[in-house]
Specification:
It is built from 4 helices and no strands. The protein has 106 residues and is mainly alpha-helical. The chain has 2 domains: 1-63, Arc Repressor Mutant, subunit A, CATH 1.10.10; 64-106.
C-alpha cells in the first residue's frame, strides 16, 4: 500500500480546471485525466475522484456535495458521541438504582 500524499487545494483546483479546459483535446475525459495526472504527479484515479466531486458540487452529477458530506460526517460523529453518552448514563443509572436497592433493607 502506498503512502498518502496530500495536495494543496490550489493544485487540486488547477488540475480539475485543466481537465475541463483540455477535454476537447483528448478522445475522452478519462484520456484528459490520465494525461494531466501524469503531469502533476498524482494517480489518474485520484484526479478522477477530484473531478467527480467538483461535478457533484456544481450539480452536473448526482451525489453528495462536499458540504453535504461534511455535514453528514459531523452528524455521524455527534450521533456516536450521543450514543456513547446515553450508554454511560444508562449504566450509571442502573448502578445507582442497584446501590439504592442494596441499601434499603439494612
Amino acid at each position: 500500500m502506498g503512502t498518502a500524499q496530500r495536495y494543496s487545494p490550489e493544485v487540486r483546483e488547477r488540475a480539475v480546471r485543466m481537465v475541463f479546459d483540455h477535454r476537447e483535446r483528448h478522445d475522452s475525459q478519462w484520456a484528459a485525466i490520465c494525461s494531466i495526472a501524469e503531469k502533476i504527479g498524482c494517480s489518474a484515479e485520484t484526479l478522477r475522484n477530484w473531478v467527480r466531486q467538483v461535478e457533484r458540487d456544481q450539480g452536473r452529477r448526482p451525489g453528495l456535495t462536499t458540504d453535504e458530506k461534511r455535514q453528514l460526517k459531523d452528524l455521524q460523529r455527534e450521533n456516536r458521541e450521543l450514543r456513547r453518552a446515553n450508554e454511560i448514563l444508562r449504566k450509571a443509572s442502573a448502578y445507582f438504582a442497584q446501590a439504592e436497592l442494596d441499601r434499603r433493607p439494612k
